Amino acid sequence: MQFRELSIPDSYEITPKQFGDDRGVFLEWYRFDKLEAEIGHSLDLAQANTSVSKKGVVRGIHFADIPPSQAKYVTATHGAVLDFVVDIRVGSPTYGQWDSVLLDDVDRRGIYLAEGLGHAFVALTDDATVSYLVTSTFAAEREHGINPLDPEIELRFPDEAGNLLLSPKDTDAPSLAEAAASGLLPTWDEAKAFYASLNEGGR
What we know:
The structure is a single chain. By secondary structure, the chain is of the alpha+beta class. 15% of the residues lie in helices and 35% in strands. It has helices at residues 32-39, 168-171, 176-181, 188-199; strands at 2-5, 11-15, 18-21, 24-27, 47-53, 58-64, 72-78, 80-86, 98-104, 110-113, 118-123, 128-134, 143-145. It comes from Herbiconiux daphne. InterPro entries: RmlC-like (IPR000888), RmlC-like_jellyroll (IPR014710), RmlC_Cupin_sf (IPR011051). Belongs to the dTDP-4-dehydrorhamnose 3,5-epimerase family.
């Protein structure tokens, strides 16, 4: 299992080693100890989610209040998606920037996003199936979104996604600037303090 820190601090691409033979393939797609060695603490997993999307579906940009927010470990178990991590932490050196990882059922990569980061993806195939391990259960009053078509963020969706399909919830979400002006976004200082508390064993 190889870890590569993305251009957005506190997010990683994870590439598992696959063992194939004439029966099929075996791999470890999540190892708490190897992740802990990278980020400084193990994940206190609270919920597992799965979504299935048509080609062109965009989900996100989603995030949750700190604390406790939601760290996410995401992989695609069928098909392919381009997964985005967006830095929405006000004051971060990479605020407003993003990075992406191709998640598919060939390389079977994963992506880890720390609490306070924005998450989105676009489905590149029909029946693209994404599974998430998360550190907090869903709480509607603490969940928020930013419009994934916000020109300030300028996510780049590949041509192979075809016609984009978004929910009204996502297209009605505020822009990054609107979310910042309303005080909706986490700050860099809040996020770093929370990560430090996790590294010290607190929650």
